Amino acid sequence: MLSYPISLTPDDNGTLLVTFPDVPEAITVGDDEDDAKAQALDALEAAFEIYFAEKRSIPMPSKAKRGQSVVTLPALVTAKVLLADEMLRQNVRKAELARRLSVNQVQVDRLLNFGHSSKIEMVESAFAVLGKRLDVRAV
Asked: What's the short name of a Pfam family annotated to this entry (predicted)?
């Protein structure tokens, strides 16, 4: 899974400002550290949706410094991020992926939507038609 380092900065109104060194578009606030991390995940996913819409490559996370907090993307979201990035690398559009998978383009739209709970088998199939393999490891 992808774990992105975050910076938590106390704001003058008692909240915590959350920024991502690797994703400057992702900025949010939280009432406390737990809330800030929860809000950070939403902000990160929203920023990645902007990257997708603009057909920009998703920045991979840098290594967190000792003691630095991180936000870890859920496994399915990580797979979707990596899939979208691979599509960009290969210059494969959604319509082309749908054709290769023999599915409707709406299914590909859902496959790249973080909010949709796609089946991991469909993500694996998408990687396969791109000549790649999804590798999930326990650490």
From this structure: HicB_lk_antitox
